[in-house]
Amino acid sequence: MIGASAVGETRIRGLLEGEDVLCTAAALQALGAHIEKRGDVWSVIGVGVGGFLPPENIIDVGNAGTAARLLMGLLATQDLKVHLTGDASLRSRPMNRVIVPLSQMGAAFDAREGGRMPLVLHGAPEPIPIEYDVPVPSAQVKSAVLLAALNTPGTTTVTEREATRDHTENMLRSFGADIEVSVLDDGGRQIAVTGFAELTATDVTVPGDPSSAAYPGVAALIVPGSEVTVENIGMNPLRAGLFETLREMGADLTYANEREAAGEQVADVTFRHGALTGVDIPAARAPAMIDEYPIVAVAASVASGETRMRGVAELRVKESDRFRAILDGLAACGVTARADGDDIVIQGCGGTPAGGAEIAVNLDHRIGMSFIVLGLATQNPVSIDDAAAIGTSFPGFVDLMNGIGTDVSQTGISQTGISEIGLPEIGA
To answer: DSSP state, 3?
Structure first.
């Protein structure tokens, strides 16, 4: 999106070619950007800030919630009328959290109850800069407002009381946006973008995705005798809650080749099998690992003792109701888990859960992959009812897992363990 808003050609290496990203590219092409793949490099020829064209057809972003919310921000301050929709899962997710600030900037929306898709966005012909306090920790809401600010006169300021992942800020800075970030006394952050700065095309190499790396990584932690190294993982401190939590559980993690790439901290991480212990995960850590709770629940199921995931109400409004999916899936596999308000409490088996269940994924890629990994450690195979959603974020997941020694098939997961092997870039 930022490359499409820049002047010149941005070349991207290591792009995750999942359905979410491909839907985003198709949407940007419909808005006038030129995007094509040349070998292993993606070329984006931008239209400049505010230069998007009215699309001829409805833009369908599939299951891509991030694409939907960030596109709404990018387009809200351009004088365009755009019809946006997505798949059944995305159409059930609320968009009001971005509609509210974008409306304050002058955009208008025709949407279903709760701001749900399909919707029509009427971009602001004369956008207004705002000062916005994000009511709940959300990198998507923050990013939507920052992208809207690019084509808005004056300075737009976003304040977040809990720091969320800052990939957007890092990328905007590398493309030449006029952006300032301040740390507040209470630990929050204030981000200010002054509009109409020209963005300059920049070559980007994308680090490996920590969310995707979590699946082979946790698999190695829970299968006896296993060791997996995943190279080039993004280790941004505002995304590293997963690794912090696993280490608190006693996981054997080692970092090597720590460096910076594309403005982001990266490292090679080795995961080795060992005993895990339940932990109390503070609510304040949720923004740094919100997508990783399903796979952490898998680790907690095998661990000894109780794990409490505090303040995870946000899981109820992801691609599916992940809060309920975690509880129901673990119970079906013989793991004791319960809700306590907005907390999830898991009593680990201290060894091998029963398994033997078929899990309904409800179009949720992370639920599907997490329970496939759990099946590696259970007494009986675990199956999922629909693997199609995995392509949303991790095409090639099954082949990769089988390539490191697992046996993932259409009928279940057998327990052959994981071989000791270094992996290429995961999610890159």
So the answer is: G
